[in-house]
Design brief:
Elements: E1 4-9, H1 15-18, E2 28-33, H2 35-43, E3 49-53, E4 63-65, E5 68-73, E6 80-84, E7 93-97, H3 101-115, E8 120-124, H4 128-134, E9 137-141, H5 142-146, E10 156-159, H6 160-168, E11 172-180, H7 186-201, H8 203-210, H9 217-230, E12 232-235, H10 237-252
Parallel strand pairs: 1-2, 1-3, 7-8, 7-9
Antiparallel strand pairs: 3-11, 4-11, 5-11, 5-12, 6-9, 6-10
Helix pairs in contact: 3-6, 8-9
């Protein structure tokens, strides 16, 4: 089995999926970047497999998904949120962190179908203070969003995962492993699924390794809670249905030009 080039995200929510993969050099050549860059590397043919934002799957009709594995949530996700100076239904402008197109696509869906607003969207660097100087609300993702003390700042935190689940009754899939047809073999799929299982079992170890030695106990507790309660790592039939709804709704609203069926590499693991 050949070595494949892999790009993964080093956000906290992705660490259970890559746990131990660096110990499999006979299968994977790993690199890390932000979600949008991982997707760009895959689209450009610079890697064989990427942990990509779920909306990026629609960029190519010949992509396949590694079965059974995802970064998902069912209810609050904690790390993808609007930080707002006013209630969601009164927001007129939103500054967005452009490093994940999935979060922006979901935001557009929620604005149109849930909040009933049509705000101006402004792309900015993910820095909360200047974002809120320019706009009513700011979209942050990943570790930046997780650790914002919104209550002390007098802001409302509107969790996009929670809003999607409340609106649809479904979980949400933020990212998954994808690559071109034929690029990933059964041994790769098996190793990726084993990494997920090992990562889920090692969530406390991952949490302890993520925080600095001089961090307070509150930060460690936040990390542990996030990995235990907010982040899911499976991709089963219920989550397939949620992905299809997300894609279809994004297409109906003109967020993406087209949608196509979910296609998977061999190695069933629906869970």
């Amino acid at each position: 089995m050949s070595i494949i080039r892999v790009a993964a995200v080093k956000y906290l929510n992705s660490l259970p999926l890559v746990h131990g993969l660096d110990e499999r050099p006979e299968l994977f050549s790993l690199q890390y970047d932000v979600p949008a860059k991982c997707a760009a590397l895959l689209h450009g043919g610079d890697i064989e497999l990427g942990l990509i934002p779920s909306i990026e799957y629609l960029q190519r009709p010949n992509y396949r998904i590694v079965p059974g594995i995802a970064v998902g949530s069912n209810g609050p996700v904690a790390s993808v949120a609007l930080f707002s100076k006013r209630p969601a239904t009164a927001i007129r402008s939103i500054a967005v962190d452009s490093s994940s197109r999935t979060s922006i696509a979901l935001l557009r869906i929620l604005c149109a179908q849930w909040f009933d607003i049509d705000p101006t969207i402004v792309k900015m660097r993910p820095d909360l203070e200047p974002m809120l100087k320019r706009c009513d609300a700011a979209l942050l993702i990943g570790d930046r969003a997780l650790f914002v003390d919104h209550e002390s700042a007098g802001l409302e935190k509107i969790d996009l995962g929670e809003e999607w689940t409340t609106m649809t009754g479904m979980p949400f899939v933020w990212a998954f492993w994808a690559g071109r047809t034929g690029a990933v073999g059964p041994a790769h799929v098996e190793a990726l699924q084993a990494a997920r299982d090992g990562g889920v079992a090692a969530r406390d170890e991952i949490a302890a390794g993520f925080v600095a030695p001089d961090d307070d106990e509150e930060r460690l507790a936040t990390v542990r809670k996030y990995l235990q309660d907010n982040i899911e790592c499976t991709l089963d039939e219920r989550r397939h249905a949620s992905l299809k709804k997300f894609y279809e709704t994004a297409h109906e609203l003109g967020v993406v030009p087209a949608t196509h069926p979910l296609r998977f590499y061999e190695g069933a693991d629906p869970r």
